[in-house]
């Protein structure tokens, strides 16, 4: 009895495509979420303008009157109510100065978020192939983006900004861990050898 011969694969392992590990996909998704949370926060601050700054200044004045100099006004007025001091500041046109200072602080935070989130998003796109250099740069910018996350997450201010700050902090830490998981390192080495 004769059996038909099957052709053996001459190409071997080089012909088989490398399978991307799930950890690499998780890295790309988490890192993108981290970058996008920073960009969303920055866009919100730029788009909100003086309305957001007015709310921010009010929150600052109510929660910490001494930070904006209203503690002296409250003491002079003989009141413990920050809202009365705010009303007085509005009546003597001093409130616009406080809102302008709050607006400048929010714009600084927006630039801080963009400076670290934009490169993080860019290097995330390059990390789809698992390259080591892109994972190194993701690590650097994810750690730097913690500065912007800390500046927005734990500050008195708009709720959306606090939420994007918390999301940015958590996902940046997770992204750094995912960058250096053994499966991603093996995939990067296998791609280098296959090239």
Summarize the structure.
This protein has 195 residues and is mainly α.
Descriptive report:
The protein has 195 residues and is mainly alpha-helical. It has one domain. It contains seven helices and no strands. Helix 1 packs antiparallel against helix 4, helix 1 packs antiparallel against helix 6 and helix 4 runs antiparallel to helix 5. About 3% of the residues have low confidence.
Task: Give structural attributes.
mainly alpha
Write the layout of secondary structure elements.
Layout: H1 22-63, H2 70-77, H3 82-91, H4 95-126, H5 132-153, H6 159-179, H7 182-194
Can you tell me the residue ranges where pLDDT is under 50 for at least 5 consecutive residues? 7-12
Strand pairing plus helix content: what structural class?
A: mainly alpha
The biggest beta sheet reads: none
Question: What is the 3D shape?
Answer: rod-shaped
Distance between the termini: 44 Å
The domain tally reads 1
What value does the Rg take, in angstroms? 26 Å
Give the amount of beta strand, in percent.
Answer: under 5%
Which percent bin holds the helix content? over 70%
Instruction: Please report the total strand number as a whole number.
Output: 0
Order of helices and strands: HHHHHHH
The total of helices stands at: 7
The average pLDDT is: 88
